# Entry
Amino acid sequence: MSQSQDIRYTCPYCHKEFDTTIYTAIKAEQDPDLKEACISGDIFRHTCPHCQHAFMIQPPLVYSDPSRKFLIWLSQQEPAESLKQLAQPLVKQGFKLRRCATVQEFAEKIQIFEDGVDDIMVELAKYDSFIEYIDNKKGTAEDVTGIEYQHTENDVMKINVRADDKGMSFLIPISVLEEEMKVDKDRFAIDETDFPRINHDWIISAYTEAAGKA
# Structure
């Protein structure tokens, strides 16, 4: 069962207290509606009953999907010791363990694993798309406001590079990404038991560290 908790919260706008419910654990198989609320971000949205302002509350949250074999820890902090103790048995069962620090990362990570795609491959695709966007003189690095995974269909991944007034979509065959990862597999090696945070910063550090060792 998913787990929730009633809390007393102070509105960041009017500074009045009110009661609300937050979720601390989501079981995707048992609660598909909550799964969709995680992807949309609705599960984190709350409205103050006093001033009617809407805002996000992001409590530490464990999201698990045994059928797809992944578990995500949503928090800006490292996993608690009790959660780390579960890591080794879960990894032996083939689970992917991840940490996300933001709601946006969290929602995208769920979508990636729902699509049955390797999130390391997604970050590689984002990196390649960014480089191609710059090399093709579609804009500068400073123009880019976001790089997003859209979907994977018929073994082709779609990545969107967003800029302030324009953007560009890239369609990348999975086979191309698989070959790139195969050739440079040491660069993309991770320890699942560490609940790694696989995101933009991670892929940049993977290339930066490799360049430093060259």
